[in-house]
Amino acid sequence: MISSELFDDKDIPAQDQSSSEDCDDIAVDNESLPLARKRCIPCEGGVDPLTKEQAEELLKQLNPEWTLVEGAGLLARSFSFPNYKKTILFVNKVAAIAEGENHHPDMTVSYDNVGVELSTHAIDGLSENDFILAAKIDELSVETPKS
Fold it and tell me: Cα separations (Å) of 135 from 1, 49, 56?
C-alpha cells in the first residue's frame, strides 16, 4: 500500500474535464506555449500519430536524454538515483503529473533506476501529449546519474 505521505490527491493539479475528445483540438493559446506549460488534451483516437519528422522536431525541445524508439512510435528516457527512496519519490512525482494531465507513461522501476516510456495508445503512436508530459517530467528536480 502506498502511504498518503508519498502520493496525495491534493498534489495533483485539477484537470479540466470540459476538453474536447480529439488530440488535434488544442486551444489556440496552448499552441504558443513552451511544451512544459501546455496541457495534455484528451485523445480518443481518430487522428494520425505524429510523423517521424514531427516527432524529431518536438524532441529538440526536450532534454537530450529522451530518445525516439520503434520508428518514432515511442518516446523513452532512463533516470538514475542513488537509492530506492529517491527512486520511488521520483515515480510518485511523475504519477502526480500524469494524473493531473490525464496522460500516463509506462514506467519500469528498479532499485536505482526508472525507465519512462511515452506513447498515445489511442492512436498507436506519439502525439504532442507525449512531449508535453516529457517536458513536465524534465522539470522535476532529478539527481544526476550515478558515476
Answer: 29, 19, 14
Asked if residues 111 and 85 have their Cβ atoms less than 8 Å apart, the reply is no
- Bridge partners of 78, per DSSP, are 115
Query: Who's near 48: CB < 8 A, 6+ residues apart?
Result: 123, 125
Per-residue pLDDT of 83-93, as tens digits, reads: 999 999 999 99
Task: Name, in order, each residue with C-beta under 8 angstroms of 36's C-beta and a sequence gap of 6 or more.
Answer: 132, 135, 136, 138, 139
Grid coordinates of 65: 536524454
77 three-class SS: strand
What the block records as the C-alpha cell of 29 is: 493559446
Question: For cell 476538453, what's the residue?
Answer: 19
* 145 pLDDT higher than 60: no
Domains belonging to the chain, first-starting first, are 17-138 (3.30.1360.20)
Residue of 84, 45, 72 lying closest to 131 (CA atoms): 72
